Sequence to fold (135 residues):
Amino acid sequence: MQAYVWWWIVAAVLVGTELTTGTFYLLLYGIAAAAAGVAAWLGFGWAAQLLTAAVIAGVGTLALRHWKRDTAHPESTVQDMDIGQSVQVEFWRDGRGQVKYRGALWDAEAESAATDAARPLVIRAVRGNTLILGN
Fold:
């Protein structure tokens, strides 16, 4: 079997696997493998094929890391919208419990020992999937 066919099979497997992960890294490596397959199809040697795949994968990885760093933590702005919202206590004991918020039950913790669950509670912060509540 020709080298370009192997490269394109590798590219198809990587892109197909990427569809299940959603990280975009395997997509970049699949594109790099496809480009190496094109280099093989054009008659370039193994060194040129590997160099093509390496350069495209390397540049793509750096570009993707830069893009992910620039768009990191978009959920923080969504969480900021939750701060200050009232919640309905479902269960509360010793500064921990469950509250109903946006139609779902959330784990919750008291902001401080002075937090009184008998008074209305509002979201002060979001830590992972736990709401930090205070009065």
